[in-house]
């Protein structure tokens, strides 16, 4: 495994262990009686008094002693875990997640509860859907303030907390309280960790596309896929549909088959990226919310008046922001669905008069509209010209293979290097040195060296040992231009004079 692969594996491993690590960042517990295992006492108490939520036992702070870390670790890991009987569940039964745990509480007069909550908020128990204050069954004028046992590790308050209690004239006596936890009180990761076979990877992350949560489940998770989908809907407000990708992205239309795991089957959704609204059918077009930063990075390179050619435009995440920035935009996509949603989103964002849209193969787009526009505009460029030409090629699986279309794309004597188009081409790499790999593949396609003439940018880590990168470069003069012989020059001149006959409609017909 290369250095990059090792780093990625390490980071992912640390992330997976993060939940357990947070639970273990506590001090040692002490018990209420000498030579008694306090965590074991907790377990017994929960077992025999769990049917009576609210039962509590007073714990005197001067009777604690320190226990070994190994016992504490086991107690911490189980404290906020659902009932062990849910292991292996494939159909969600929310009632089965109930369990009772023992937590520390403070008895407080009703009239000062809110004041004390603010002062002790850093040690109060925080769980989803859980009340932090409960009634005292033995005293209607008092309430129990539920504390976090991880932050009150010795079942006694620290000096700062005791100072607060003294100031408010509250007796600093901590009690044990039987707290019933239900499905609503557990986090999605805790639920899935309890359900899936022990030791197997838990997936609680997903890509959100409007009201849709998009998962990439592994084989061992598939038997639990419908349960996983329902848990994600339950725990994430606004998510009403969960889908799982069932095959790899089609390299032609950049979409994939998917299965609806839970919720509604409506896959037409709305998203907002960088303050721009888009609408799309997620089952028919490509959309990746993880590319938001990259879309913004490229658009920030553009100036008003620049020309953008978007070869694989999708529904317009490069094209529409560029048009809003007063750039001249030519946007193309082979997928008819993407093309239609591109037109729809252009109208939605009121830039339909600023974008020329095409539904063509990427190579035909380069050899047709791009060639025509460059043939027309580049001869007019001057050295002091401020406007630039940019060509975005965001089809990471194949885009580098299209770079050979730039070889002798234009036939004429170059007027200089002013206005030479800048290409931003995306690719995947599993190489130990991804930047070197992308550059070498681009050079092979262009037929020239890019040493000192290009830059590479790491976009994101797609999978272990697989990176997505962007290589940017100005097309070298000797690549872009084919110098004609005298007879060819005359014919080329005639062709340039009639190039305005080329139109979008011709290519769409």
Structural class, by secondary structure, is: alpha/beta
**Oligomeric form of this entry?**
single chain
Strand order of the largest sheet: 14-13-12-15-17-19-18
Tell the overall outline: elongated
Separation of the first and last Cα atoms:
51 Å
Largest sheet: 7 strands, mixed
The tally of beta strands, per DSSP, is 20
Contiguous low-pLDDT stretches (5 residues minimum) are 3-77, 492-509
Mean pLDDT value: 81
Provide the helix percentage.
25-40%
The gyration radius over C-alpha positions equals: 31 Å
Count of separate DSSP helical elements: 15
Q: How much of the sequence is in beta strands?
A: 15-25%
Defining key terms:
509 residues; alpha/beta; seven-stranded mixed sheet; five-stranded antiparallel sheet; 15 helices; 31% helix; elongated; disordered N terminus; disordered C terminus
Brief summary:
The chain has 15 helices and 20 strands. The protein has helices at 3-24, 38-49, 69-79, 113-119, 159-167, 188-195, 225-235, 292-300, 319-324, 336-348, 362-377, 434-446, 477-480, 486-497, 504-508, and strands spanning 56-59, 99-109, 133-135, 142-146, 174-181, 207-209, 212-215, 241-245, 258-263, 268-273, 276-281, 307-310, 328-332, 355-358, 389-393, 410-411, 422-429, 454-463, 466-474, 481-482. The radius of gyration is 31 Å and the shape is elongated.
Explained architecture:
By secondary structure, the protein is of the alpha/beta class. Helices cover 31% and strands 22% of the residues. The protein has 15 helices and 20 strands. Strands 14-13-12-15-17-19-18 form a seven-stranded mixed beta sheet, sandwiched between helices. It has a five-stranded antiparallel beta sheet with strand order 1-5-2-4-3. The longest helix has 22 residues. The chain is elongated. The two termini are 51 Å apart. The N terminus and C terminus are likely disordered.
